[in-house]
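Why Nickel import system ATP-binding protein NikD? Reviewers of the renewal asked for a concrete example.
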Amino acid sequence: MLTIDQLSLQLPLYTSWWKRDWATCLDEFSLWVSAGEVHAVVGASGAGKSLLAYAIMGLLPTPAYLNGQLYYQGKPLNASHQRQLRGRELALIPQSLSALDPLVRTQRQVAWAAQRAGHSSAHARHASQQALDHYQLDARAQQAYAHELSGGMARRVLTAMAHVSQAKLVIADEPSVGLDPHQRQRVLDALRELADQGKSVILITHDLRHALPIADRVTIMRDGKLVETAPVCAFQGSGASLTNAYSQALWLALPDNAFATTGMSRRQQEANVA
Ligand SMILES: Nc1ncnc2c1ncn2[C@@H]1O[C@H](COP(=O)(O)OP(=O)(O)OP(=O)(O)O)[C@@H](O)[C@H]1O
Ligand code: NI
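Here is what the prediction returned.
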């Protein structure tokens, strides 16, 4: 469905007002995701996860140097192709809540997303109503403007918009931040459901715990680089089937695995990460 081949990204870094350097934000990063799969991309803050999502969607800031290749359904994914597919076949649930239009009420915002995806206006209304109900956005939230929504509500609106887009590839960038455990479960379950319907989902999160219950494979990312891609079953026990010490340490650092079977102390685990 989607292949990312050796993608490198450099963005400007202003060390002072007259001096511009280039910072490498993605460094020969590769990943593929197939239909029916939830592929989690996990990494610490600043690892480059959101930039990876923007690179796939064609939403990178300018100027930017991008090298490497993206392929969607076997064909190179270039800028015009991305423009054409965005909001239709490719959907992003963005990390930033400012992606919502401040001048449009929730209900209309979701209905527009459905129309953009090619639904007739009657069907768009119906599909968006279903999505709003599914994500438990009540009548008041439906009539609210973005600034009147809580962070968790706004995130559910963005998720509902991706849901009605009928996209074949959904990229969810930290979709569960700010949600209570019940709402988080609903959003994560909905992503799993999309994959079970044959779509591809890239779930971006800094929290391995949220990824493991729904992912098929997990890619660990650090400083713009691929650390390891592993099937979800590798994250068990002492993490011995993980090939990289950083992935193992991330796994062992989860609260349920603290001081896990290896007998490693937390300090040793942290030393492993460093
Ligand atoms: N527009 C930009 N211009 C220059 N550098 C940027 C820009 N956006 C992000 N970066 C830098 O690129 C790196 C990766 O940023 P990115 O937002 O992709 O991280 P992330 O993994 O999504 O982090 P988080 O979990 O905090 O959202 C960071 O060092 C960040 O400072
Ligand atoms: Ni991010």
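The chain has ten helices and ten strands. This is the kind of structural detail the renewal will allow us to pursue systematically.
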